[in-house]
Amino acid sequence: MNPSESSERTPMSGPNTNYDPVEVSALDPANIDGAVQDALSAIAAAASLDELKAVRIAHQGEKSPLALANREIGALPPSAKAEAGKRVGHARGRVGQAVTARQTELEAERDARILVDERVDVTVPALRREPGSRHPIELVAQRLVDAFVGMGWEVAEGPELESEWLNFDALNLGPDHPARQMQDTFFLDPVDSGLVLRTQTSPVQIRTMLEQEPPIYVVAPGKVFRTDDLDATHTPVFHQIECLAIDKGLTMAHLRGALDAFVRIMFGEETRTRVRANYFPFTEPSMETDFLCFACHGEETWGTAEPCRTCGGSGWIELGGSGMVNRKVLRTCGIDPEVYSGFAFGLGIERALQLRHGVRGMHEIVEGDVRFSQQFGMGV
Amino acid sequence: MRLPLSWLAEYTDLAPGTRGADVAASLVRVGLEEEDLHGGDITGPLVVGRVLSFELEPQKNGKTIRWCTVDVGQNGQMLTEGKHQEIVCGAHNFEVGDLVVCVLPGAVLPGGFVISARKTYGHVSNGMICAEDEIGLGEDHEGIIVLSRLLGEEKAATLQPGDDAIALLGLGEETVETNVTPDRGYCFSVRGLAREYWHAQGSPEGGYRDPADVVTPPAGVGGYAVELKDDSPIEGNDGCDRYVARIVRGIDPTRPSPAWMTKRLTQMGMRPISLAVDVTNYVMLAVGQPLHAFDVERLSGSIVVRRARAGESLTTLDDVERTLHADDLLITDGGERPLAIAGVMGGASSEVSETTTDVLIEAAHFDPTTVARSSRRHRLITEASKRFERGVDPKVTAAAAQLAVDLLVAHGGGTVDAGVTDVDRTTDRTAYLLDVTEPARIVGVDYPRERVVRILRDLGCVVEESRDGADDTHVLVTPPSWRPDLVDAPDYAEEVARIDGYNNIPSITPTPSDGRGLTHARKARRVVADALAGAGLTEVLSYPFVSEDLADHLMLPADDDRRNAVRLANPLSEERPLLRTSILATLVDTLRRNVARGRKDVAIYELGLVFRPGGPVGTAPVPGVAARPDAETLERLYAAVPAQPRRAGILATGQAEQAGWWGPGRPADWSDMVAAVETVAAALAVPVAVANDPAHAPWHPGRCARITLVDGTLVGHAGELHPKVVAALDLPARTVAAEFDVDVLVAASAEPVQARPFSTFPPALTDIALLVGSDVAAADVEAALRSGAGEWLETVVLFDVYEGERIEAGHRSLAYRLTFRAPDRTLTTDEVNRFRDAAVAAAASATGAVQR
Q: Do the Cβ atoms of B505 and A256 come closer than 8 Å?
């Protein structure tokens, strides 16, 4: 239905003050009802916001039948105005409400359609640049450092190219000590320069004790060097982390407490340690620590069809050496062993990485194949 | 060190049914780490066989096998088929007639390996001829066991095909192998290990029988003349402080060693050789005293122990002629002819032979340092040197000699000379005044006084009440002669803890009170590492070893400090004797490896130390260790250690951004490298400046950025590598790189960032296009704009660079958007125009820029 059709049925009347509103055709109730019905049908039929706009102009606009009827009211005698005004106003209100309702409906439909139209396949690749990642050796070291720092320890560090005295002599490893022969050391040229690539992170302990007053609680992560060829279990360049505590009244019980904290951090709350005597020149008494295998939880699978791959079947995993700092070492560092005692322990970070993350060999750790680091992201 | 259970049972009470694993577990409890278990896990038939014949049969895989017929006595195929055993063997170290060890079908070898007749190489092989490792006898897998070589001709002559090889080789019995730490030399003997086992059982009364507890005759007249003449002791210790010599004459050289002895030697991993040698080895294993047997016939004068002289040499038992060093301690014949390097190895000339009838047994005590140095100098680690280096019991000498002569007489006949030589200069150990509460203070377990005293006595210490008797917290402890490692309180504390049980030590978490968290440097370094990873780079680690020609490949100028590298005296590979002076030096290998593995797009970084001696390497002092070195010495010590700055290296090749549904990719270029360094600097909130650097190897002279702090301190370089470097190092074309000094950035970020206020009024934007010479750096133009634009300039953005037909040749157009903002009001157009003009004027005067 269009506006011209409806205007045919409601021909324009001139103003006439003497006529009864019912006799003014535009104000005839039937005509008004008709106009309302026409408008409502047109509104309902509007299929789009554009069509609705046209309907609105036709049925609500200045030239719409109801607008024209409204204009006729002015010509009525005052007695008739109220009734006619009420009738027209009511009619216009109905049309207005219907337009608004349809408008809302159509807008909702449009909005919904836009969302459908804008749909994409979000499963196509989104990363235009491969994300970077950290090396897990650094991440494991960081994790251990953080745990100890959380317990109030501090971090110490020292050079990788180190004096022989700090790497050996000061640690009670004299030139003829059998243990000094066990370590395959990279010496600098000329050999009498007294410089080596450090074979352990322990010289950091000496530096710390020489430079700081007790109490000392430090953790020293770092790179160390031995003249081993690369194979599944050896690498000439690897990483250790060492802890040193010097204070009044420290005993092997504190050492064990620190070791327990250490393994819980790395391998979970379930684990525990067992300790036995061992020998290291820089500690006396010395201690070797095993911890309960986190994979088989200490179940002995030795000699069975499937021995535990993590611990080899014994139920325990060797952690590393430790002990009470040798009094000779304390004296060398100017610390009075009558007043202070202390302990030290350390372990290989490669080994911790291998155990904790199931890294099988040493090659992937040292080769720098990006696929290895990428598995670990930015934190482990 | 190995420990056969039957031998252990001789010296201790071994409960019936005790297994090797139980013994190993006991020893672990007292600190002797288990290395291995041998024997006890074989089920026969494992028999002696004689090789009757074999045919060589070449195989398709290149191997040649031997198709053997072996006489195994009344066993195997002889019983079932009435013929000799037919076995395929891959080894070639035997001949027809040799006695070998055969494992026959039905047997089970160590590791649960079940033997059955099986088809292989076109034959049915009825078992195997065994190598040492297959039956758990040793590590050797070079060839199969030939019994005449393993047990000696004499012993082999007594064997018959079909004899049980399990009993013969002692394989039916378990042998525990333990690792002996350097402080426990006494555990290189069954005597010592048995003692430890006894301790692990709680040291029951009478439960340990010391094999060295034998009666020895006193030294007297008639002994072989021995003189100890060490005129240059090392560190004041005589090279030899005890020398016992005993002579047995009239031994029948054809008599073999008794079976029980050869079996034990085999179990211990040693080869039986001859009675005299076997006896010395057996006694050494029993009580830990290395012995040497000299052929008396081959001695002409007295035995003189002295240091070597210049120019002397000795051909040792292993047939190597060794030039001797003045520190080597020698056993000499009459003071002249060297007979042996003391405590290390004997000489060939005085060796006992198959005709030796008169034997001189040497049991001596040598200084550990002297032996250690000789052993190291001559690269000779022997059973003797291993023990002397770690300390041999100086009181067991005479007993060991007695045990040896007794065995020689018993099994070789002959008689012992009445004369006994025992030159004894050993001194008794002095008593140590031990505070009995000290073990508790060190260990953290409250050991009662009686417990401490009891443990020390069990260990063999003599414990006496303190002299004045009134002080019951102190006792006088004299350690046993075999424990040179027991010196002061911590040593005794360890023993108390060890015997009482390390697992009795409680666990107390230490609680430091004033930790200050991570240092700024460590935090900042993490920011650097994380920022680089966040920028899409993957962290890797590389070895710091580089080749000598790398500096040339990197095109480093002759005077470049990076050519000043530290050299290793003993590099792993002679091809890489130097330590890196830059990270890129070793990171290139990692890039190449990734590319070689088929990866085209690689973006990696490494953080690490580089070694910059800055000149010839000096000599680090080696102060004494008795006390803290003085300040000046420490200063020199620290100063002698070359500088090791911490640097970061970055390398990238291939696509920085991948091609995909969004369009083409973007190759990594010089700007990614500059951006990476800028990203790190921004992550640390450190402002940096970038300049073109036309001369910094190994970069492309036209594509290298020099990055500095705003005060001019060098941070590093970034850009594209020089094409010649790329070619020399076999890198992908257009590889880009950056390297910077992490320490510089870390230091620059140390001060807390001071916040600047910012305005909330609307910004005013204005665009300008400047025509500049092509050689004018954009960074300079920007700096000039900034300097001229006044304080309300907020940002300068270079949004377009144009070079081409529309402008004058040799020039380029730089289009900038300047943003201004005042702190307190909205700027007027006039103001903004004025600022803009001032900025342009500054750029014009600084760089010749002309506004377009």
A: yes
pLDDT digits (tens, 9 = 90+) for B612-668: 998 888 899 999 999 999 999 999 999 999 999 999 999 999 999 999 999 999 999
Domain boundaries, chain A: 3-117, 136-374
Interface of B with A in 378-397 (CB under 8 A): 389-390
* Among B822, B813, B814, CA closest to B796: B814
Tell me the pLDDT tens digit for each residue of A288-337: 998 888 888 877 776 667 788 788 777 888 888 999 999 999 999 999 99
Distances (CA, A) of A365 to A169, A227, A273, A371: 31, 18, 27, 11
Class of domain A136-374: alpha beta
Contact B654/B668 with Cβ under 8 angstroms? Answer: yes
What is the C-alpha separation between B1 and B189, in angstroms, rounded? Answer: 8
Say if the Cβ atoms of B529 and A138 lie within 8 Å. yes
Nearest to B608 by CA among A113, A366, A183: A366
Minimal C-alpha gap between A288 and chain B (Å): 8
Shortest Cα–Cα distance, A113 to chain B (Å): 25
Taking the CA of residue B795 and the nearest CA in chain A, the distance in Å comes to: 28
Determine phi and psi for A13, rounding to 5 degrees: -110, 145
Tell me: the pLDDT tens digits for B372-383? 999 999 999 999
Q: Would you say B522 and B600 are in contact if contact means Cβ atoms under 8 Å apart?
A: no
Contact criterion met (CB below 8 Å) for B57 and B151: no
Q: How confident is the model at residue B292 (pLDDT cuts 50, 70, 90)?
A: very high
Question: Rounded to a whole number, what is the distance in Å from the CA of A279 to chain B's nearest CA?
Answer: 6
Q: Is B494 part of the contact surface with chain A (CB cutoff 8 Å)?
A: yes
Task: Name the residue of chain B whose CA is nearest to A239's CA.
Answer: B541
Residue B602, helix vs strand vs coil: strand
Q: A247–B658: do the CB atoms touch at under 8 Å?
A: no
Residues of A in contact with B633 (CB under 8 A): none
Burial class (CB in 10 A: 0-12, 13-18, 19+), A146: middle
Give the mean pLDDT of B413-435. 93
Q: Is the pLDDT of residue A28 over 90?
A: no
A333 contacts in B (CB within 8 Å)? 628
Cross-chain CB nearest to B543 (options A164, A170, A237)? A237
Look at A251 and B617 and tell me if their CB atoms are within 8 Å: no
For each of the domains in chain B, give its residue range(s) and CATH number, in order of start. Answer: 9-34+180-200 (no CATH), 46-168 (2.40.50.140), 226-424 (3.50.40.10), 432-504 (3.30.56.10), 520-617+635-748 (3.30.930.10), 764-851 (3.30.70.380)
Is the pLDDT reported for residue A38 higher than 50? yes
How many whole angstroms separate alpha carbon A27 and alpha carbon A75? 11
Residue of chain B nearest A303, judged by CA positions = B111
As for the ipTM of the complex, it is 0.84
Answer whether B513 touches A (CB < 8 Å): yes
